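Convert to structure. Protein one:
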Amino acid sequence: MDAAQKKTIIREGFLVKRGHLVQNWKARWFVLTPDQLLYYKYDGGRRDSCQRGRIQLEDCEVTCPFLELENRPLVFKLRTKSSVEHFLDACSREKRDAWAADIAAAAEKLRAGDGGKTTHGQADPAESLGLKLVNVNLSQVVDSMYDVHSGIRFTNHVEQGKTYSNCFSGSAVVDWLVFAELALTRVEAVTLASALMEEGFVRPVGLRSVEALRTAGLTQQFVDDSTALYSFAESFKKRGSVKAETSLSAVELSGKVVRRGYLLKQGHKRKNWKVRLFVLRSEPAYLHYYDPSRDDVSPAGGFSLRGCLVSALDDNGVPSGVKGNIQGNLFKIITQADTHYFIQAPTHEEKMGWIDAIREQI
């Protein structure tokens, strides 16, 4: 984001966006400017500087609320000038209405000629490619790729003296997807391979592929080349089977909702950072968290606040127990059972707001 855009930020924060090519939901950091809605991915615990897309607001139409998606009552819809529809899920009705109102106001200013010229830069990947890989089941795709009889062939590669085992090249992936008729063209295959990588099924392992992921634009993250190396992620077979860390009862969910919002939580086993929807309840006092990428209305986990300790963590350096590349605004909750939860808020104000709200319930 350039200096001019930074000066004209109207609103920013987490929303959950439904994909175009694969209609799954992903938490993204959104930044609203007078003429565009930009969105970014959080890489671990830090916002990725690479834009994942932008939505031009010129002649954009906002529908709020949009109540046609089951289990997602907090969605609003944007329809662009080119008739592309974007579905965005907020953490609360207040946030949803505020985002929709600000976006509608920005679009109205553009229609009135007060918003300045629209900057035509990188478009949304679905808009720019015009692809129709809709409702693709990525789990089935990767299972087919992994099939011992008809799947992709594993090879060993040596790159600058280092050996990479059980991997495959980017061009081999594209060849296989086209041969298996999962994509009609190499361009579509690259897009599908990028979705597999985005979801963590496939990971870059060689210098060329890692560098491409770090520096490439929206549509060049997966490299169709024999020198770009990839492999399956070790954990891909476990995806979709996440279980709640604690058993939940109806009593836990019966309290009054005091606060809700998107925060980043560090996992207990893999120590990776994920965006979660946190909901704080009182009488009884519980803190639950949900996976916003799923339509499941059940929490992914939660715990009683009785006997808990909550404290802010210093942003100078990486505190003990915290892993990964973090943004800051950390706080820690220690439960009565001595389980440590490391949580990261997007801003200092939100961190202190959550700490104060939790302390009131302890």
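Protein two, convert as well:
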Amino acid sequence: MAYSAQATKKCFLLPLVNVIVIVIMIVLCCSSWQLVSARKRIDNLPGFNGPLPFSLETGYLEVNEEKGVEFFYYFVESEKNPEEDPLLLWLIGGPGCSSLSGLVYEIGPLGYDLQNYVDDLPSLYYKTDSWTQVSNVIFVDSPVGTGFSYSRTMEGFQTSDTEAAHQLLSFLYKWLEEHPKFKSNPLYIGGSSYAGMIIPVLTLEIATAKESQGAQFNLKGYLAGNPMTDIHGFDKNAKVPFFHGMALISDELYESTKQSCSGNYVNPSNIHCAKYLDAVDEVTKDVNVEQILEPQCEAFPLRKDCRNSLYALSEFWANNATVRDALGIRKGTIVDWKLCTDPPYYTYDIQSAVSYHRTITDKGYPALIYSGDHDSVAPYIGTQAWIRSLNFSIVDDWRPWYVGGQVAGFTRRYSNNLTFATVKGAGHAAPEYKPNECLAMVERWLSGAPL
């Protein structure tokens, strides 16, 4: 599933529509929405047969009192040992994609049954290869305007990369105060796609608060999957060599493009470079950018062989009144829930997160950076390039890692406790495509074992 600003799955709204929806929402918030309890323990969910086989809590936390910004979250306790297992804050990309994506598509214990869907309310099933087998996971809707998060003022919707990181820090402070039994659990920050711009920034803020203010964060490290890190410097520049390496463009087109563009495929410096880039776009236009082996298809009509149809089910489910009551959603705060929206007042004020990776790993915090190797949104080639730019020495050189006796990907470990891994055959959100392999990967890394 694509969680980058350029992702094809993303449910873009025209700016005017966004403004209208926000204005309606603020009017409703200020006049008629009913405040419900900020936290709710959920034992049953519409669409799931019987009681949930895991502990689920939903709730709201105010992360900016002056502007009335409220973040919504889903919290699933570890299904093994919640008292001692790590606490993982999981962020989604976009920016503007709901954390429900993490719960039902990526690393959570629920999934939608697309194959048996007919109409009305989608059915949910339990997934045994969830990361909640080994960790407590908080899925949070960030930035404001994402999922069920909202603001009571128009000012509150004016946010940015750095503001999102600040508000997530505030969220963690308050969440741990409300859940003190998890303060001593090892804390990790993780996520995928555009969240790669936020994860190292937030992790550094947590580390700084811990060092300078004595904040009670038991921070142990961070992880990022197919992360957007330096979009114009590394990420987008990796697409042309990725397409060539995956046999999507010819040798001749690649060599001509490489020579005329001098390795810069983002801002063409001459007419020949622009012409060859247009040729690359033309020949790859019908390729699924999130997983190049899967079909490029529309969500409607609901095709059972189309991943976008699976994404559509979340909007049917989250806009159902019974579901909203079960989740404890405050009435009138979100008129029309979208899996992904395009935040109309968002400022992209972090151009590169590379320096944050250096700073946070210099402080001794381990990092796991992994890439589904069939993703062209944030190609593994670009991720390898920015990691090389850090000039860390290689501790454990390139080798395969295995699950069930089969090669699950390849990995390399660097100094500063930075581990890079590919997930063989996976797309943009690797756990969505290879859940069993990714669970094995994260379980080993969290335990300190080699992949």
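Residues 109 and 128 are 7 Å apart (CA to CA). The domain at 15-232+307-447 is CATH 3.40.50.1820 (Rossmann fold).
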